Sequence to fold (247 residues):
Amino acid sequence: MKAVFETTLKLLLSPLLVWQGLRVRKHALILPEPTGPRFGVDGNGPALSLLILGDSSAAGVGVPTQEMALTGQLLNELAPFFTVTWDLTARTGATTAITLERLKRLDPRDYDAVILAVGVNDITRSVPLNRWISLHGQLFDLLHSKFKAKRIYTSDLPPMGQFPALPQPLRGIIGMTARRYDAAMARYQATRPEITRLQMDLPMDPALMAEDGFHPGAAVYAQWAKALADHIREDFGTPDIAQETGG
Fold:
């Protein structure tokens, strides 16, 4: 019923939604990807190989340097406990299909942990739900077979219905679609034992967002990185911080 209501609403509002979408694209502030390395080795402790994969949020758009982005803040969380060999493979505008094709072109390599951040561009480009789920399945299979991923970490879609950059009613329609897609993806990923899915509930306070009103700011990346690091440390058997520091 939700899908039927959503489709009907889109049809009724289609002229306005198309006009608003074109205006958003025309006037959107285009932020660059942050500067900084896209691979490296950091930290001390047991070896951990890590791949950060996906779209502009994985790339860190919204902050000026990788140190402030998801990758840099995640490495800061993990470096006291692991020697992390890491790669960042992410591009602005990437959909699930684009990410899958990029993975197919990469040379095989083993990763302990893979962080996948993709989906927002699929929503804004109206990729059909069944195709979106199918593409994710192919992506997970490839990460397992070609890259020997032990754990894959995903997060729920951000609350797109609260993005400051989107006007109403476009914001509400996109938010409705994102919630429906996210619920379907959560049900699918629950059938994949290799996946850890984070329910982030990240704040959408405009003060915590990037200046484009669409991407995370440094504080949001920090919360995201902390949540991921907690799961990785638990999954790969590192001691509690208190034990590490003698507290």
Q: What stands out?
A: The first helix runs from residue 2 to 27. Confidence is low (pLDDT under 50) at residues 241-247. Residues 2-234 form a domain with the Rossmann fold fold (CATH 3.40.50.1110).
